[in-house]
Specification:
- The chain is mainly alpha-helical and about 70 residues long.
- The chain contains two helices and no strands.
- It starts with 7 loop residues before the first helix and ends with a helix.
- Helix content is about 50%, strand content about 0%.
- It has a domain at about 5-35.
- The chain is rod-shaped, with a radius of gyration of 36 Å.
Length: about 70
């Protein structure tokens, strides 16, 4: 069972609270009928960290690689 307010101040507060709830519910219904929707905050973009960084090496075929080694000697 709900407790009854013992002082007039508590009674007036509960009347104000119930009135505010009713007004809020009515405003929500009117807004829903008008097509107003709550805006969602933009979600933060995730930064993808690569596991292995790409290397800036030039890849040569085996024959060219051997030819370069022989020329270096």
């Amino acid at each position: 069972m709900a407790k009854k307010p013992t002082t007039p101040e508590e009674a007036s507060e509960s009347i104000l609270v119930t009135a505010a709830k009713e007004i809020g519910a009515a405003a929500g219904k009117v807004a829903a009928l008008a097509g107003v929707k709550a805006e969602k905050p933009p979600s933060p973009k995730k930064v993808v960290i690569p596991k292995l960084a790409p290397k800036n090496k030039s890849r040569l075929p085996r024959k060219q690689k051997k030819a370069l080694k022989k020329a270096a000697k």
